[in-house]
Design goal:
By secondary structure, the chain is mainly alpha-helical. It is built from 14 helices and four strands. A hairpin with a 2-residue loop joins strand 1 (143-144) and strand 2 (147-148).
Length: 336
């Protein structure tokens, strides 16, 4: 039995996407949370908590996009064509966020509010566009032959907009629990309070999406609610409930600094797993599987050699950067 290169590349893309959501999610969450904090010193602590690592986090987005282009060119072509508008908005948001991130440290006091607003706006736009993209993938794409046959705004539906808002809340929770881990005193206490409110909102969003998706897509309903699949998939929602209860308790415990963030990562992973379960094995829902969209095996094999070399390097320097800049961030301390 030969090695299925399409499965291997699918796993690589899923891994890169999950790493991006986890790592860039909390620093986008910092920008989303900026309006809730008015103190300039606290805002500096928030930004300094991610300043040494934020640009490296986006390596995973580049890796995932390049892997999709090389390993599944049909999927890349359809997704880029169908989602040109939200993906362009995402890139514009990331550019604004990145420029504002660096410029706010150099700006005069009179100009800093402008860059703070650019940081907030870029973070929200990029996150919302990513959520819309996820919702559009769940809804599926119109494909005729090997080309996208829908319109430029087919992605614009109530469901995709709701998914965009949902991801804004999820990233905000990642950001707030990251700050519980990285900050102290007044800012940390404020983040504990915000995290509890965001957790409640996120659970409501998860419940609505969990009801809305199977009602709108009978194939997804069959995947989740027919036997024996129901028995195997039941642990996913059950674990969401367990982790959420544990999360609430950890946020009430002033001695728990790292656990809230770890539990939020668990919730994000479960949500991502639910998405994968719903659309598998389609890389272009509702009809094109990953094998149908795959590049020739020779191309996938050639690329895999490079991927097996570069992914460990990315993992090592990511670990090292987080290790070097571990610990609390205090007022007056910073990377810049």
């Amino acid at each position: 039995m030969g090695i299925d290169l399409s499965i291997i590349w699918f796993v690589i893309i899923v891994f890169a996407t999950l790493m991006y959501i986890v790592m860039d999610g909390f620093d986008l969450g910092i920008g989303i949370l900026f309006p809730a904090i008015q103190d300039a010193g606290d805002r500096d602590v928030m930004v300094n908590s991610v300043a040494p690592v934020w640009d490296g986090n986006e390596t995973w987005l580049v890796l995932g996009g390049a892997a999709l282009f090389g390993a599944f060119p049909l999927a890349y072509a359809v997704i880029i064509d169908a989602l040109t508008v939200p993906l362009t908005l995402m890139l514009i948001g990331l550019i604004f966020r990145g420029v504002a991130f660096e410029f706010r440290f150099k700006a005069t006091p009179a100009h800093r509010p402008f860059w703070d607003k650019a940081f907030i706006g870029g973070s929200i736009v990029a996150t919302f566009a990513q959520g819309v993209t996820v919702g559009a993938v769940i809804n599926g794409f119109s494909v005729t032959g090997r080309a996208y046959s829908g319109g430029p705004f087919d992605w614009l539906t109530p469901f995709t907009l709701f998914c965009g808002a949902g991801l804004v809340v999820a990233y905000a929770l990642l950001g707030s629990t990251w700050l519980v881990m990285k900050s102290e005193n007044r800012l940390q206490q404020r983040m504990r309070q915000l995290s509890k409110a965001l957790l409640v909102v996120l659970l409501g969003i998860i419940a609505i999406v969990s009801i809305w998706t199977p009602l709108a897509h009978p194939a997804i309903a069959d995947r989740w609610f027919t036997l024996p699949d129901l028995y195997f998939l039941l642990p996913v929602p059950a674990l969401v409930v367990v982790l959420s209860l544990y999360q609430w308790r950890s946020l009430d415990n002033p001695n728990r600094h790292n656990l809230p963030f770890i539990l939020t990562l668990g919730l994000i992973f479960l949500g991502f797993s639910g998405l994968g379960i719903s659309i598998w094995p389609y890389i272009i829902p509702p009809a094109i599987t990953l094998w149908q969209a795959a590049a020739p095996a020779q191309s996938q094999g050639f690329m895999l050699v490079g991927a097996l070399l570069i992914i460990p390097v990315i993992l090592v320097y990511t670990y090292w950067s987080y290790y070097v800049f571990r610990g609390k961030v205090r007022h007056g301390e910073g990377y810049h």
